[in-house]
Design goal:
This protein is α+β, with helices and mostly antiparallel strands. The chain is built from 5 helices and 8 strands, in the order ββαααβββαβαββ. Helix 1 crosses helix 3. The radius of gyration is 15 Å and the shape is globular.
Amino acid sequence: MFQSSEQQLAEPLTRQLKTLRLTAHPISLSDFDSIRLLHRDQTVMRTLSPTGKPWSEEETADMIVRSMDSWETKGVGPWVFELDYTNTFIGYCGLKPETIDGEPCFELRYAVRASQWGQGYATEMARAVLYFKLIADITLPIVSTVSAGDDPARHVIEKLGFVFDKVIERGGRDHELFRLKR
């Protein structure tokens, strides 16, 4: 049975998420080449990176290793999303354990290939991740940060039910902190 985009739910399979258009698996070393595409793209990294600059291969590898460790120790981390029918890499999305201003929380983070922007993938990925973790009954706050002035990212976060909390600094730049309403 088909569901409307507003009714999309992630299907928690064995280490897999599935939406109407996408499938996802927890990040692994085999995803390096795809993740590297994102991390060297100046357009994507302008808003994804705290500094606004592309990452080196070493930074990408470190991020993947840290993410895999997060999956093993905390049970959360980034999911790598692909189009279900072509296996085309779209991006990644997941929850990251964080402490912001002394408060433990989970931060929703996502990245989409620039060539795939404007097609609703960020929202679809984030809904799948949030549904998967909300059914696991997370008690810590779920937050997200957006580079100041990144209106498309702000729109995605607000569509998901996040509300603006305050401006924080990351990497020497202002970011807007949002909290998920429960």
